[in-house]
Write a structure and sequence with these properties.
By secondary structure, the chain is of the alpha/beta class. It contains five helices and five strands; from the N terminus they run E-H-E-H-E-H-E-H-E-H.
């Protein structure tokens, strides 16, 4: 199984990219991994929030391929411990999912079309996090989940 984190907009801070690169290299010891970037909507300041969500939503939905599983990282999603998240990843692997795509939406969230198309949602925190921080925190949790599944000492319950 390949894990893909699909994000809207480039990473702009060097420290974020450094952290992403660190965990990306660690994850690749366990399974294929990709951080895929959908370009930010051009001239977004001239559009309404709904128009921006709609344009981003079209780009997100173009990623859906047969056999792939998609999960929205969303504040209204289910909250899991690291151990439960690792169990969920294992179930997806056991089910033969080819690509598991976790989606980080843009600054206004997801369009109704994306919510309709992707029923599975995961919340990282009840706190509001920047989209840059979500990238770092989530990629670390993917790495942590892999070490939990392998029984390695990185995770201390």
């Amino acid at each position: 199984m390949k894990i893909i984190i699909l994000v809207v907009g480039k990473t702009t801070d060097a420290w974020v990219q450094t952290a992403i690169s660190l965990y990306e290299s660690r994850i690749k010891h366990y399974l294929p991994f990709e951080l895929a970037v959908i370009p930010a909507v051009k001239a977004a300041k001239n559009l309404t929030e709904e128009q921006v969500k709609e344009k981003e939503g079209q780009a997100i939905l173009s990623w859906i391929k047969p056999g792939d599983a998609m999960v929205l990282l969303d504040e209204k999603g289910v909250s899991l411990s690291s151990e439960r998240f690792a169990e969920r990843l294992q179930k997806k692997m056991n089910a033969g999912v080819r690509n598991l795509v976790f989606v980080v939406g843009g600054p206004y969230g997801f369009s109704p079309a994306v919510y309709d198309a992707v029923p599975e949602r995961l919340s990282l925190s009840a706190l509001t996090l920047t989209h840059q921080m979500v990238r770092v925190l989530f990629i670390e949790q993917v790495y942590r989940a892999m070490t939990i599944l392998k029984g390695e000492p990185y995770h201390h319950p």
